[in-house]
Amino acid sequence: MISSSRRGFTLAIAALFAIFSIATPAQAEEAPRVRFSTSAGEFVVEVYPDKAPRTVENFLQYVRDRHYDGTVFHRVIENFMIQGGGFDARYVERKTRAPVAHEGREALSRGGPRNTVGTLAMARTNDPNSATAQFFINVKDNAFLDPTPIPPGDPVPRFEYQGRVYENVPRANLVNAPQLFGYTVFGKVVSGLGTVMKIKAAPTGPGGPFPSDVPKSPILIQSATLVK
User: Fold this and answer.
1) What region, left, alpha or beta, does residue 138 occupy, with left being phi > 0 and alpha being psi -120 to 50 degrees?
2) Which residues pair with 187 in a beta bridge?
3) 104 and 185 Cβ atoms separated by less than 8 Å
4) pLDDT(28) > 50
5) For the CA atoms of 54, 55, 56, 62, what is the dihedral angle to 10 degrees?
6) 156: in domain
7) What is the pLDDT of residues 61-100, one digit of tens each?
8) What are the distances in angstroms from CA 195 to CA 43, 44, 190, 224?
9) Res 116 pLDDT > 60
10) Whole-angstrom distance, CA of residue 127 vs CA of residue 18
11) Of 29, 34, 41, which Cα lies nearest the Cα of 222?
12) CA-CA distance, 153 to 165, in Å (whole number)?
């Protein structure tokens, strides 16, 4: 026989499991999703504000502002990535807000994704803190684009990069080295990956101000809509 105190404890545990069984699926669905309707088909991306909050909010604000509507995928490299979000069909660059601070290392430290097939990352110039509206989707695993974690210590006792080992390096030298920042991954394609693969296979050549890698038949983003 279960005593009243034991019975109460058992009921409390059962209630706790019931709460988790309800809450867990809801929590898993909290990541915002954006549907891209393009001239090549649709795909949906999921973004992670818990991993890269500034980057995600920056991206979602461009979605809310309808910035991406009417832009094209202006850079398509079949064994690398597809890039868009910056130019309209006449290759006129859209105006953007101020750049968002790079947070690739922070995202990785929070368990965020790497530059693997189907993941979404911010495009930028050689300046790590220059990302504005343009994004890219990896169509193969691109580990060389991942941010490089910096080991603890100052100086850092041992640091290995591209097969070379460095010892007793001042921490600031590594933290601020542009080649170690990588690219901030902040989401992934959760449906319509076939559309992305269709885009990456498009024949390319010169177009507008670009000497290469431009789809010969423009691939238009008709709309980018926040769906949850």
Assistant:
1) beta
2) 47, 120
3) yes
4) no
5) 110
6) no
7) 999 999 999 999 999 999 999 999 999 999 999 999 999 9
8) 6, 10, 12, 14
9) yes
10) 49
11) 41
12) 16
Residue range 208-214: mean pLDDT, rounded: 97
Task: Report whether 75 contacts 208 (CB < 8 A).
Answer: no
How many CA atoms are closer than 13 Å to the CA of 13, on its beta-carbon side?
A: 6
Q: Which residues pair with 167 in a beta bridge?
A: 158
pLDDT digit string (tens) for 120-170? Answer: 999 999 999 999 999 999 999 999 999 999 999 999 999 999 889 999 999
Asked whether 216 and 204 are in contact (CB, 8 A), the reply is: yes
- Domain assignment present for 123: yes
Find the domain containing 19 and state its range.
Answer: 1-29
- Do 37 and 140 lie in one domain? The reply is yes
- 12: pLDDT confidence band, cut at 50, 70 and 90? very low
Q: What are the start-end ranges of the H helices in 112-224?
A: 171-175, 193-200
pLDDT at 1 over 90: no
Task: Pick the closest to residue 137 from 69, 52, 47, 209 (CA basis).
Answer: 47
Q: What count of other Cβ atoms lies within 10 Å of the Cβ of residue 206?
A: 11
Specify the length of the chain in residues.
228
Distance of CA 146 to the CA centre of its chain: 11
Tell me the CATH number at 41.
2.40.100.10
Collapsed DSSP state (helix, strand, coil) of residue 150: coil
